Amino acid sequence: MKWNTEALDRFLEEKIAERKLPGVAVCIRGPEGVLFSKGYGHRDGAGLLPVDGDTIFGVASMSKSMTALALAILEEEGKLSLEDPVVRYFPTFQVPGNARDEVTLRHLAMHTSGIPPMEPLEWSIAMNTPGRDSKWARTLQASAPNTMSTIQEVIDYIAQGRYPTLGAPGEIMSYSNEGYAILSYVVDQAAGIPLEQFLQERVFRPLGMERSVMDIAGEEAKVLAKGNISALFDLDDEGQLYWDEVWSALPPFRGSACARSTAHDMARYYQCLSNSGVLDGVQCLPAGAVEKLAGPAFPTQEKAFYCLGLNKRLLDGHVYCEHSGGLHGVSSEGGYLQGENYGFAVLCNQGEVDVTDLLWALYNAVTDRPLEADHRWLHPAGGTFSQPELLTGHYVCHEGVPVHWTVSCQDGALSVDQDGTKRRLLWCGGTWFQQLDEEGQVVGRCRFHIRNGQAWGVQVYTRVYQREDYEKETQL
Question: Which stretch is the leader sequence (predicted)?
């Protein structure tokens, strides 16, 4: 394949410099091997050590497809079924409002168990990570009921039902780190060895991912890195960039967010998934297990669909399977072109920054689209939503420090105030909307859920925020 690597390099360099990102590593792999690999910026606080394709970063929620893959391999081997009820592995598990035996491993893996957004992951980080002193950490430490350091504490908290269940299993998708925390321990039981060991033996080693590990607090990654590991950058309470080397410790959430890897290794991983488990001519992963992640059992459509640890979408004849990740000092994106033998990775060492357009540029380089072309799958419908009164109200997300969404309507135009930040809502058909900032730039998407003639919740990206009065009515 011939394409302009210099143009791609310039595009990425300009975008990274424009956002003042400390360090970014990218990689594209295809049938010929590494097609493009580049490190930008630095990996240390002094700005002296460069990033390269072998620099170890956190990958955060990109870990989830690895956990899902472990489950798929175990199902191929007859050691579990994705249709198993969760209570088979954790007898006290319960999603209040649903029958105890209804929720399956598949529901957890697809985020359709009915579990609403809740605090345990962020409580776990705040209570188990030393050296964090911020308004965020202090707020969560003050509200945490315990250290959230065991999976049983997570399961017990879910069972308390402090927030209304979102619906019957399989009805509503809402991203749940708690679900993948539980799945990590299901792998332990079914495999007879810890998830971390299973991934080393069955995924990382066969794929030649020699600089990849799943570990709770990054200590194994530091040893593996031999110095080539990134520091962690973030903004403090005053909006100033700072750095440290304190990886988030979140013990029960191993398979949700605890993998560390490199751009080279993650591109190998995604390329192998793209090619039915074959990498460099070798069948490294069972083809049947790879197919279970995002294969024909799931719809192929323009709107992204969450499969098992991966989003799947269709654009211009290409099927993209991908995931992002974010934690302190981590903003990651990666994916593959299904059936086309291409894998892509973008790893950044600053938390809470959007690097999606960098991944899009990698995709575009391979698929012969303009590098700046976006991949948004939600488009304005024209006109306005005809029943705005169904949507207005106050919505809350309890994942960590609560996020408040107040939707209002003036002269037929809907807008949202998110904790003091105001955005316009642009109708995109059905109950879908784009979020626009003051300059008219798209900064998000959302979809309202209607029951009994009123919106009871709004899905903001992948989390469902529930209407406040709906919560009160449900708790009566």
Answer: none
Same domain, 340 and 410: no
- Say how many Å lie between the first and final Cα of the chain, rounded: 63
**Are 335 and 313 within 8 A, CB to CB?**
no
In 3D space, the residue among 389, 334, 392 whose CA is nearest the CA of residue 363 turns out to be: 334
Token pair 């080693």 is found at: 205
CA distance 356 to 374: 9
Quote the pTM value: 0.96
Say if residues 343 and 270 touch (Cβ distance below 8 Å): yes
Of 377, 411, 441, the residue that ends a domain is 377
Give the Cα separation of 21 and 383 in Å (integer). 38
Q: Which residues on neighbouring strands pair with residue 448, listed in sequence order?
A: 458
Residues 395 and 368 in one domain: no
**Alpha-carbon span 11 to 8, nearest angstrom:** 5
**CA atoms of 343 and 426, how far apart (whole Å):** 34
Task: Tell me the C-alpha to C-alpha distance, in Å, between residue 148 and each of 123, 140, 256, 328.
Answer: 6, 11, 14, 18
Q: Which two tokens stand for residue 78?
A: 């007859």
Tokens standing for residue 230 = 């990134």
Domain with 70 in it: what CATH number? 3.40.710.10
Task: Report how far residue 55's alpha carbon sits from residue 434's, in angstroms, rounded to the nearest whole number.
Answer: 36
Query: In terms of residue numbers, what domain contains 414?
Result: 388-475
| Domain contains 383 | no
Rounded to the nearest 10 degrees, the angle between the axes of helix 263-274 and helix 63-76 is 40
